[in-house]
Amino acid sequence: MKPFISIIIKPTLSCNISCKHCYHTPEERVSGHISLNILEKLFRTASEEYESVWFIWHGGEPLMLSLQFYRDAITLQKKYFGKDTHRVGNTIQTNGILLDRKFDNFCKENKINVGVSFEGPYNDVLRERSSDVLKNLTYLSDKDHVFTVGSTISSGTESKQTELYEYFRDMKINVSFSPVIPSGCAAIHRELVPDPDLYIRSSIEAFDKWLFDKDSEIPLIPHYLYLLNALGEPTESDCAHTSCLTKWLCIYPNGDLYPCGKNCPKNYMLGNISDVEHLSDVFSTDGFKQIILGTIIRREKCKDCEIFRYCNGGCSVDAFYECGIENINGDSCRIFKAVFTHILEVTNGILDDKPDLSVYNMYVRDAIVGKLLNPKIVSM
């Protein structure tokens, strides 16, 4: 069996709000949801071929579907992966508006991670009903539920990353930052895409703040993952820089399969689950050949870059929307190169100088101590 795959499930494309940067345009956000028959086919084929699978329930807004739907879905998972097994895991990514006590308890009982899309004091820049989300986040925090906030950085907030870090730090909520990419609604409204130079400057400032924030109780993502990557830890960085092709799939409500959840263009479609006997067969389709060919051409252009071994050529879907899948130096490439290079230089400086580690936060201290105790771990 193959070791592992991550599968994004879009159980519905409909949503209860209209985020300005949504991967899906209003015309695509139609009603309707994935059937249990489609889910059963997905779970069965995945369980037969992969030792473990992580399912990410996305959308649209996944909580537009009832609690009973998710009870039935998890029952189906257990049918094929077994009960109380380490073979399967789940994350639900939601805008947070429809979270309630019953769903929270269901997630606790079934060890389902919750990710909430929220930009703190700047949530109204991209989203709606911010007060409802904040109320639900406060409830989750009070009940000590493990969850993470994903904050999308846009034009107008690209210089606010340190402020956002401090906001979530004070709430003791783990947070991850990512920039708007020009796909879906943001392709129509490209003014939402952050200025890359402002983003870089603010991202580095946020990292430096977190680095020396001795009392911080949260990891700042993706910066913490970049630091681990710079240390040569045997851990993957964020999905955009892990050479994810063949390691990720996305299924739409009608069963269509894509290599990514970022609203891939139609020519990258990998077929439909109803026609699939072995899940990995989709990686031999014409759609996959197109995305892998463009990726290879781009990587040939950037393989001599000094940080190529850390980024693996970046995200092909980001490149497609920013500058063309075969091309380099899109905004995402520029941002990663500048931010990661800074983190790499800082990390190497700490290892070389061996300063008093008490000036750093606990995540940095633990990572550095681990590296000093295991110096034979080398960069990938």
Description:
The chain is α/β, with parallel strands linked by helices and 380 residues long. 40% of the residues lie in helices and 13% in strands. A 9-stranded mixed β-sheet has the order 7-6-5-4-3-2-1-8-9. Strand 4, helix 4 and strand 5 form a beta-alpha-beta unit. Helix 5 runs parallel beside helix 7 and helix 7 runs parallel beside helix 12. It is globular and about 60 Å long. The relative contact order is 0.12.
Order of helices and strands: EHEHEHEHEHEHHEHEEHHHHH
Question: Span between N and C termini?
Answer: 25 Å
Low-pLDDT sequence parts: none
Structural class: alpha/beta
**Please, what is the average pLDDT?**
93
Give the radius of gyration.
21 Å
Spatial ordering of strands, largest sheet: 7-6-5-4-3-2-1-8-9
Q: How many β-strand runs?
A: 9
Overall shape: it is globular
Summarize the main sheet.
9 strands, mixed
Proportion of beta-strand residues: 5-15%
**Residues in helix, %:** 40-55%
Features:
9-stranded mixed sheet; 380 residues; globular
List the helices and strands and how they pair.
Blueprint: E1 2-9, H1 36-49, E2 50-57, H2 67-81, E3 88-94, H3 101-109, E4 112-117, H4 130-142, E5 147-153, H5 161-171, E6 174-179, H6 185-188, H7 196-211, E7 220-221, H8 223-230, E8 248-251, E9 257-258, H9 286-302, H10 308-311, H11 316-322, H12 331-353, H13 362-373
Parallel strand pairs: 1-2, 1-8, 2-3, 3-4, 4-5, 5-6, 6-7
Antiparallel strand pairs: 8-9
Helix pairs in contact: 1-2, 5-7, 7-12, 8-12
Compact summary:
The chain contains 13 helices and 9 strands.
